[in-house]
Design a protein that fits this description.
The chain is mainly α and 191 residues long. It contains nine helices and no strands.
Length: 191
């Protein structure tokens, strides 16, 4: 005798409910029971899919985190600035403060950490493509280390948001993109 028919929209509702709670109340306030209630589901529906809050949030971010656009402006500096704009939208969001606790919890869940790493790689694809185009245009002689460039761009945003607790202004984002650009161009100029 077959069980109850599977609800094809349930996972989507659960992820949407998780995103809403993260956005409104933060990671610390989020519970799997709260997600179930908000999605009109049972707690067992959540636990069957995600045994931990950390994994649920990893999958939620993969679906709901604002995308990093892949744009070809015709110059590396403009591409970097566009990439920084997209990062700033995420780092400026109110839910970002709550994710610091989630990042700490990742150390205890290797599956969630792997999902987060995969998401980070996908979000970096636009940057990697911009760097490859810069090589094709002759702006760079070789594609630099992607982790280094990501750190040059996202590190200052993290610091400004989480340590300095200041706004990510247009002037600040210009300065970040400009600094990274000049660092990337320095090796080419010295040859």
């Amino acid at each position: 005798m077959p069980g109850r028919p599977r609800d094809p929209d349930l996972e989507s509702r659960l992820l949407t409910a998780t995103w809403a709670i993260l956005s409104e109340e933060g990671y610390a306030a989020l519970t799997l029971a709260q997600v179930a209630a908000r999605a009109g589901a049972h707690r067992s529906d959540v636990y069957r899919r995600w045994p931990t809050k950390v994994r649920l949030v990893a999958d939620t971010l993969a679906v709901h985190l604002p995308p990093v656009s892949e744009v070809d402006t015709g110059s590396l500096l403009s591409d970097l600035r566009s990439y920084v704009d997209d990062l700033a939208r995420s780092w400026s969001a109110p839910w970002m403060d709550g994710l610091v606790g989630w990042l700490a919890d990742l150390a205890d869940d290797t599956d969630a950490e792997a999902a987060f790493q995969d998401m980070g790689l996908r979000r970096g694809d636009a940057l990697w493509t911009s760097l490859e185009r810069a090589v094709e245009r002759g702006e760079l002689t070789q594609v630099p280390d992607g982790d280094l460039v990501s750190g040059l761009l996202e590190g200052p945003l993290m610091h400004a948001r989480l340590v300095r607790r200041g706004p990510l202004t247009g002037d600040f984002l210009d300065a970040v993109a400009d600094a990274a650009y000049h660092i990337l161009m320095a090796p080419a100029a010295s040859r």
